[in-house]
Amino acid sequence: MTAKDPTHRQTLLAALAAKGAWDVIVIGGGATGLGVAVDAAARGYRTLLLEQHDYSKGTSSRSTKLVHGGVRYLKQGNVSLVLEALHERGLLMFNAPHLIRHQAFIVPSYGWWEGPFYGVGMKVYDKLAGKLGLEPSQRLSLRETRRRIPTLEPDGLRGGVIYYDGQFDDARLAVNLAQTVIDRGGTALNYMPVTALLKKGDAVSGVAARDEETGRVYEIPGRAVVNATGVFADGVIRMDDPTVPNLITPSQGVHLIVGREFLPGHSAIMVPHTDDGRVLFAVPWHDKVVLGTTDTPIERADLEPRVLEEEIDFILKHSRRYLARGPERKDVLSMFAGIRPLFRTGDDKSTAELSRDHTLLVSPSGLVTITGGKWTTYRRMAQDTVDLAITVGGLKRRPCPTEQMPIHGWVEASDDADPLHAYGADAPGIRRLIAARPELGKRLHGALPYLRAEVVWGVRREMARTVEDVLARRTRALFLNARASVEMAKDTAALMAAELGRDESWRAEQVARYKALAAGYLPSLKGGPI
User: Which residues contact 71 (CB under 8 A, 6 or more apart)?
Assistant: First the structure.
């Protein structure tokens, strides 16, 4: 890797020194901010994205891994959101086929009325998807339901309803979106927190940002500044006006990862109603199973939210209702929490009932804020945001090209059995690394499929700067098996240090930091860590 490579940090930093104002500056490198930056860059605007930590460090790497219309929103009567999400689901499957998969979901029926009731509901869901729909839903017999999911609780089971949605790898999509920003001529920098908004008179005219690696502060002019920081949106708004009250109601969602023995086969489970009003999913993912989620109101957002004991109990309790052998704490391989940025409505609704629609705001100073929404609709959210930013920044209006625009890594078809399939068009580059250095073809750990070459690739081409970046988001080791990922940390640090020119003290510090982080991804057993 050389400084001429477009993703090299020195190349990206050099762009900050270029004269003239950026057309669009995006604060925040989660799903929403990345989508906005991709859209703006694709329209030909001079675009800069700044992320305080790493891409999708927060909520955007901690989803249920679904690209879906939202069955429960249909139940709530929010047909417009479901229509939009189903349309965007179809577009994303065409734009990032290396990351999106069709996923069969079964709603098990234990009451005589559930089969017909949910069968009709899923037919409506199919109809709303229109020409971008997947396979049609249908009712299943008891025998077929048990054949597809032999681990379902048999007592009282009458059959089920099968329907289809999308499943994806959220952090991998985020990395590919950051690469797409650069592919389209934009600049994206992680570890570059915005510390202040610049103003001319009462109008926002840019941002000040600090390079976390060097401490250097940059003053960066911009015609339109977009606050796409999710659960941290209030903090940026108060940089503009310290008197503005909180607009975000944070809600925490938790997921547990268990082994495939609890859900063999290819079908997922969707339980349409739990004690707190949310649905419960059990979804196959990277040869593991994702169980979740919860909806827990919390007082404040944190960059590294922690799973609450009651949330672990909630998911395990509900899983045991529907699985013949329900998982216990000792079966949890990893657990993670994400925080949803729900827009405050001023009423007393529970967070489970608050809308997931996105909200756009423009302050008197011209700061554009986008909040709410979900991964599935990130592209539409970005389109709406850039349309507004064009007006606020006085930019020449250009059409949005992203509906049919391939995302970095696009390949027409990929083989799920290939351990590098998530890299799409980049997979041959990783294989060339291995051909040149065969030792990079070895696994980092026997319990997970990740290769040493992926560490090198993550540094050279995917802007990874820390061991956490590689083990949590370039690979998904932390989320799939936290204990195994800790055992990978030392080798990962050594490979990264060689690429980044770091010394032994950096390696030791990275490993220590990672071990401390990973401890929060394992539940306790009788008061002590597993």
Answer: 121, 122, 125, 163, 270, 272, 279
For the record, the structure tokens of 365 come out as 């100073």
H-helix or E-strand spanning residue 290: strand 288-292
pLDDT on residue 303: 94
9-59+172-247+353-404 architecture in CATH? 3-Layer(bba) Sandwich (3.50)
Closest-CA residue to 289 (of 483, 520, 480): 480
In this prediction, residue 493 carries a pLDDT of 98
Task: Report how far residue 49's alpha carbon sits from residue 52's, in angstroms, rounded to the nearest whole number.
Answer: 10
Q: Are strands 22-27 and 47-50 parallel, antiparallel or unpaired?
A: parallel
> Could you tell me if 461 and 452 are in contact, meaning their C-beta atoms sit under 8 angstroms apart?
no
Please give the CATH number for the structural domain made up of 100-166+249-343.
3.30.9.10
- Name the H helices within 323-451: 378-393, 427-436
Pair type for strands 217-227 and 203-210: antiparallel
Q: Mind listing the pLDDT tens digit for each residue in 329-351?
A: 999 999 999 999 988 755 544 44
Contacts for 507 with CB less than 8 Å, ≥ 6 apart: 490, 493, 494, 497
Contact in structure between 161 and 115 (CB atoms under 8 Å): yes
With the C-alpha atoms ordered 57, 58, 63, 69, is the resulting torsion angle positive or negative?
negative
Say whether 410 sits in a helix, a strand or coil: coil
Nearest to 68 by CA among 356, 403, 370: 356
Phi, psi of 418 (to 5 degrees): -75, 120
What is the average pLDDT value for the chain, to the nearest integer?
92
User: Is the separation of the CB atoms in 495 and 502 below 8 Å?
Assistant: no
Contact 318, 274 (CB under 8 A): yes
Residue with more model confidence, 347 or 187: 187
The DSSP annotation for 205-260 comes to EEEEEE-TTT--EEEEEEEEEEE--GGGHHHHHHHH-TTPPP-EEEEEEEEEEEEG
Quick one: pLDDT at residue 133? Answer: 86
CATH superfamily of this structure's domain 421-529: Alpha-glycerophosphate oxidase, cap domain (1.10.8.870)
CB 329 within 8 A of CB 316: yes
How confident is the model at residue 346, as a pLDDT? Answer: 54
Nearest to 171 by CA among 422, 356, 406: 422
Closest among 253, 349, 350 to 308, alpha carbons compared: 253
Count of residues making up the chain? 530
pTM of the model: 0.95
Any idea where the domains of the chain sit in the sequence? 9-59+172-247+353-404, 100-166+249-343, 421-529
